[in-house]
Amino acid sequence: MFNLSEVAPATLTAVGDSLTMNDPALPTEQVTAASHTHLYVAQVAKGLAQGKGLDIKNPDLYKSEVWYQCLTGAVAQYAPWVEIVGDTTVATNNSTHTGSIDLSGIMGAVMSIYLGPEGQTMWTALSSVLGSASDPATTDFMNFWWSHVAKSTTSTGLSIGPNIQTADGQIQWAVVFYTMTHVIDDWRSMFISSTYEEFDVTAGGLTLNMDYDTYIQPVGGNPSASSQVDARLGALIGTAITTAPFPTNSTSLDGQLSARGSLANLIASAPLAL
Crossing angle of helices 225-233/28-51, nearest 10°? Predict the structure, then answer.
């Protein structure tokens, strides 16, 4: 029987329509914190998109430049424990392929743009496992994830990013979005080679650093960001986050909040999607 526990990374996490790999070096509490922050940022970004009059149920939103702007705004305005690493401008890569297409190979190259060789290695490990997965628990988990992925009749947009541990013990992940010109109707086709006359890929993303210590510590007599985020997300945590086993520069939170009021007011005012 295929044993997922023998394969690195240690776990997979589905956060809504995002499939995330977790570095085995990350303790469980950091995986949880990253997942909750990921969901919070995504929901705030959707709330910002709704505020712009955009339809968050339309998959085309998640392959547009405005979605990157909403993500950047969600982090910069409402998640001061998360730092955008590098250039905040939208960077996209477009390529066209013909013949036999290895989707996992293409996405491995995309991951390396944002997280370097480690990100590509983790994607390759995921591809190797799920391309021939025989563990029922894994199949059930992937079926759950796929049912939450936003799909349309013409393209698929997903966010993927391994949660890795930085040199100073904090958490980093990439938010990567890509679109394709054909329909993927099953998650297994993400990890096998297929043949197309023409296949276009557009990809882009952001790399984010999360200050875990700042996230879990109370600030200025106020409850920690983690407790407030969990309270704000409420039941979404149980319905949008599922985890399965898989066999920097810190900024001053006090300084950022000085001109915007308390952390409680900041999180309470974040425009989460309805």
Answer: 60
List average pLDDT for each run of 10 residues in the chain, which is 274 residues long.
40 80 85 93 94 87 80 92 72 66 77 75 77 74 77 58 84 77 74 73 79 90 92 92 58 49 74 77
Q: How far apart are CA 258 and CA 268, in angstroms?
A: 16
**Residue 162 C-beta-side C-alpha neighbours within 13 Å:** 32
Q: Render the burial of 228-262: b for 16+ CB within 10 Å, e for the rest.
A: bbbebbeebbeebbbbbbbbeeeeebeeebeeeee
In this prediction, residue 125 carries a pLDDT of: 76
DSSP 31-93: HHHHHHHHHHHHHHHHHHHHHTT--TT-GGGGGSHHHHHHHHHHHHHH-TTEEEES--S--EE
How would you classify residue 107: left for phi > 0, otherwise alpha for psi between -120 and 50, otherwise beta?
alpha
- For residues 59 and 151, the answer to whether their CB atoms sit within 8 Å is yes
Q: Looking at the DSSP assignment, which residues form a beta bridge with residue 109?
A: none
Distance between CA atoms of residues 130 and 138, nearest Å = 8
Residue listed under structure tokens 């988990």? 141
Distance (Å, whole) CA 34 – CA 13: 10
Contact 150, 59 (CB under 8 A): yes
Find, among 231, 210, 227, 222, the residue nearest to 263 by Cα: 222
